[in-house]
Amino acid sequence: MSLLDINNVTITFGGLTAIDDLNFHVDEGEIVSVIGPNGAGKTTFFNLITGLSTPDSGEILLDGESLIGLDPNEITARGVGRTFQNVRLFPQMTILENVMVAQHCRTNQKVLGPIFRTKAYKEEEALIRKNAEEVLGFFGTRLTGYRLNQPAFVLSYANRRRLEIARAMATQPRLLMLDEPVAGMNPMETAELTELIGKLRSEWGFTIVIIEHDMRLVRDVSDRVVVLDHGETIAQGSYEHVSTHPDVIEAYLGRSAGDK
Amino acid sequence: MSTRSATDIDPKHSVSVGLIAGISIIFMGLVGLAVGLNERILIDPILSLGYLFLLAVPLGAGYIAANETVLEGMQAPEKGTRDIVAGALAGLAGGAMVGLFLILLDTVDLSEKMPAWGDRLLDMLSFNQGVGGGVVVAALVGTVLGALGGAIHVLKDEPRRVIKIVIISVLSFAILEAIVDDVLGEIGLKPVAKFLYSKSGGLSVLPAILVGIVALGFAIGFKGKGDELKTRYDTMEEAERKQVNKYALIAVVVAAVVLPMLLGKIVNELLANVGLFVLLALGLNIVVGRAGILDIGYVAFFAVGAYGMAVLTTPEAPWRINDTLVHDIFGWLPVLPWLVALPIVVVMTGFVGLLIGTPVIRMRGDYLAIVTLGFGEIIRLLFLSDWLSPTLGGSQGIRNIPGVNVGVTEINGTKPQYVFYLVAVFVAIAIYISHQMETSRIGRAWMAIREDEPVAEAMGINTVTTKLIAFVTGAVLASFSGAIFAAKVGSTFPNSFLLLVSIIILVVVIVGGMGNIPGVILGAVVLIGILGGPKQPGLLAEFSQFKLLIYGALLVFMMLKKPEGLLPNAARTRELHIDEALQDAWLKGDKPSSEDEVATA
Question: How far is A74 from chain B (nearest CA, A)?
Answer without folding.
Answer: 7
